[in-house]
């Protein structure tokens, strides 16, 4: 709830890969509806296995010690700044009366489907596989589904900015969790796998430890701030998000979940 002269609220449908704080359902904000293999509403991480011959193993980035190098893999959409006009559909809604809180905006952000590829390591006996360095994790914002009440534009600039800031932080939470997932995914390039099932076990571990926590984080953010109404709590979350390093796409000060845990917020 983003307060504007104590008379407006923002209902956010933002989930780092799913969900909404408006009605509690867990499938809003998805890039696609949940499937039978996507029971938690997460966009599944799919794998394909390809064989390589000759020097093709060179397409796999591997490291010994230190952080893995970033090659073809990409984290897309991390630094996006939301804009009322570009990123939200205007919707006619009654303006709030004195002391009244009404729906002001709704945001749909998420982490898109992730595809990773295994390649056979040349001349390996017994045969083993490694991840190809072409993984892509996308932070998404659905500008066709996200909306804002038209009366927002009639409010003072400070009020408009306050409302948008709360929405931006929902996107930032999605971006940070997506980044933390991406960086842990990159660590898997160091490993070799006997088969696709072995990789899938590691991917499921990452999903459960990072990616699946996203909606709970979004919900807690709205609960603590009352959708932005409580400025002291908004300031607190702003500091935690900054502490996680929202300006750093391929590096991190600290994982967001670690920062929140240090503040007593656990999932």
Topology:
Layout lengths: L44 E6 L23 E3 L7 H4 L1 E3 L13 E2 L2 E3 L2 E7 L8 E3 L4 E6 L5 E3 L7 H31 L8 H14 L4 H12 L5 H13 L12 H7 L5
Parallel strand pairs: 1-6, 2-8, 3-9
Antiparallel strand pairs: 4-9, 5-8, 6-7
Helix pairs in contact: 2-4
Question: Please, could you describe this protein's structure?
Answer:
The chain is α/β, with parallel strands linked by helices. The chain has one domain (45-262). The chain contains six helices and nine strands; from the N terminus they run E-E-H-E-E-E-E-E-E-E-H-H-H-H-H. The protein has a three-stranded mixed beta sheet with strand order 1-6-7, with helices on one face. It has a three-stranded mixed beta sheet with strand order 2-8-5, with helices on one face. It has a three-stranded mixed beta sheet with strand order 3-9-4. Strand 6 (114-120) and strand 7 (129-131) form a beta hairpin. It is elongated and about 75 Å long.
């Amino acid at each position: 709830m983003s307060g504007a002269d104590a008379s407006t609220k923002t209902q956010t449908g933002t989930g780092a890969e799913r969900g909404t704080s408006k009605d509690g359902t867990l499938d809003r904000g998805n890039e696609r509806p949940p499937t039978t293999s996507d029971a938690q509403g997460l966009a599944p991480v799919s794998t394909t296995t390809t064989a390589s011959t000759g020097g093709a193993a060179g397409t796999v980035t591997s490291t010994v010690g230190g952080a893995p190098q970033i090659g073809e893999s990409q984290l897309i959409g991390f630094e996006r700044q939301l804009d009322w006009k570009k990123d939200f559909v205007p919707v006619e809604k009654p303006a709030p009366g004195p002391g009244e809180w009404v729906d002001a905006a709704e945001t749909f952000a998420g982490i898109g489907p992730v595809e990773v590829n295994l390649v056979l390591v040349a001349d390996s006996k017994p045969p083993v596989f490694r991840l190809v360095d072409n993984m892509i994790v996308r932070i998404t914002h659905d500008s066709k589904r996200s909306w804002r009440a038209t009366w927002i534009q009639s409010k003072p600039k400070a009020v408009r900015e306050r409302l948008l800031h709360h929405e931006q932080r929902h996107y930032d939470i999605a971006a940070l969790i997506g980044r933390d997932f991406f960086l842990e995914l990159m660590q898997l390039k160091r490993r070799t796998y006997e088969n696709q099932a072995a990789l899938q076990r590691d991917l499921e571990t990452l999903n459960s430890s990072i990616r699946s926590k996203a909606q709970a984080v979004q919900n807690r953010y709205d609960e603590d701030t009352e959708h932005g109404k409580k400025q002291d709590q908004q300031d607190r979350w702003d500091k935690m998000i900054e502490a996680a390093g929202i300006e750093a796409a391929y590096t991190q000060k600290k994982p967001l979940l670690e920062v929140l845990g240090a503040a007593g917020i656990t999932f």
